[in-house]
Amino acid sequence: MMPPQAPRGRALSTLLTRRPNKKFRFAPVKPAPPNPPVAVFVHKISTILRSSPWHSASAELRELPIRWDSFTVNRVLKTHPPMEKAWLFFHWAARLRGFKHDRFTYTTMLDIFGEAGRISSMWHVFREMQDKGVVPDAATYTSVMHWLAKSGDLEGAVRAWEEMRATGCRPTLVSYTAFMKILFDHGRSDEAAGVYREMLEIGLSPNCHTYTVLMEHLAGVGLATNEPIYYVKYYDLLCDLAIRSFWVGNLANTAKKKLTIRKAEGNRQWRLTGKFKAVLEIMSEMQEAGIVPDKAACNILIQKCAKAGETLVMRQILQQMKQHSIVLRHAVFMEALEALRLKNQCDHLLREVNPHLSFEGCEEELDNQRTLSDTNYLVDRSIIINLLANKNFIAIEHMFNGMINKHIEFDTELISTIIQVSCACYKPSCALVAFRYCLQIGTVLNRAAYISLIGFFTRENAFQMVLEIVHEMAKTGINFGTYLVYLLIYRLGCAGLCSYAENIFYSLPMEQNIITCTALMDAFFQAGETEKALDLYSKLRTQNLPISSGTYEVMILGLQRCGKFADAEVYLGEIKDKFHKRKNVPLEHAVAKKTSGDYETFLLALLGD
């Protein structure tokens, strides 16, 4: 007989309902460590090849847990281990089971031998490549061409190009660019033009490196020789090169206009200036097309400018480098610095573009005290730039007043900018302080700053100040230009200051022509100085200068204003006999004629130019 069942109490029911559900839990499996990336193995293999002799290096390579393929071998070769080790490694890899060299590994091995100047070994690898049934591609032929040309074998490079074309291998943009550079470097510009045209015809668009090759050659023509430079012929070539490219428009038109202006017999300095202007035009067109010159292009052009002494063009390239945060290599920086010093020009822009080299070149000239002074100068210059950006002209004026007696010299660009901005914002006191500062320390302003001062004080009828600025501008040797002198003489004549007009006219003998003479005659007539006007006209006749219809009209109106109607009729008969049958009036005659017509319209037109 079974004992009776015990009653279920509260504790038992709780135990039954809350009994935990125990399940067996497996321990988590730890994932296997990932394989190191290929770059780790590449670095390790390169280190082994550089630091160990080959017999021990080969043993270490066999122990590496890596799958040997052409990609890995090519990456190792591109680290440029020692040439002998690279060749041994190349052959060692060829004996591995399941491994076969491809066009990439062969091309890299070609580059190693070519860079070392082992042209015979390079040809051996190339022939072995063909014997193994590996078809060379455009990169392989481009490498062969490059190293053959580097070794001086131009004909061999040309044969490699022709062989590439004959085998049906289609050249790439890199191939065309490399072959163009080879031809340019060896003086075969006409053939380079044909290669460029062919590249465009098959639909390849030039890239930054292609334009760099063009600009480098354009800037470098004639720098290494004193022989005559066929400048006009090269401009023909440049137009021919550009004719199918997307930057052809402005450059080709500008070049063709220059062809009608100058001939190849021009002086060497003009030719260099013209070439570098064309380089700037190419850079401008590149940027408009969305192609920004890279660091290599800027370094090459700055170096060419430094060798040619083209500091003005160098500054414009430095401005573009500053916009795109491009810096120079140390060697190029030192060449540019030396070029600026030879021209006695400021190097602050060069140092601003290259802050990492800003203290280079100072050791020979500056002691500790001067270095401290330069530091203070940089601080003062930065303060002035910030004040100018905020248009705080009063503070700038106070700073200049404090620095005049201390003989602290600022660069021309900064002072010229201050003067131009001050005149544009109608702050004559600040512009005058900056101008007096330049006179005190002997700094020469740029032409735009002088024109801003002349224009501002002319509008204010402060002609005594205008005369002072004109004389200072004449001392610097800056070119005035016929139209600027004409405008000054005309405005002084209208103000009744013919003595000032006469002073300016005779102080600028290079600007004495039919236009300025006509303006001075008009000034004499307006001031009632009839005899001086007639004497000037007589000098024009004795010097056999061509008398324009405008000059006759000024004479006629001036004589009529003075009551000499009989003399006016004589000149009226001359102008009818000389000009009534002419349809095409020369440019100078047309400009001189404006002195008797609508002055204000003509002034606005000239100021717009």
UniProtKB/TrEMBL annotation:
MF annotations from Gene Ontology: calcium ion binding; calcium-dependent phospholipid binding
SUPFAM superfamilies noted in UniProt: Annexin, TPR-like
PPR repeat residues: 102-136, 137-171, 172-206, 513-547
Keywords: Repeat
NCBIfam families found in the cross-reference section: PPR (TIGR00756)
Record family assignment: Belongs to the PPR family. P subfamily.
Protein name from the UniProt record: Pentatricopeptide repeat-containing protein
Organism: Zingiber officinale (Ginger)
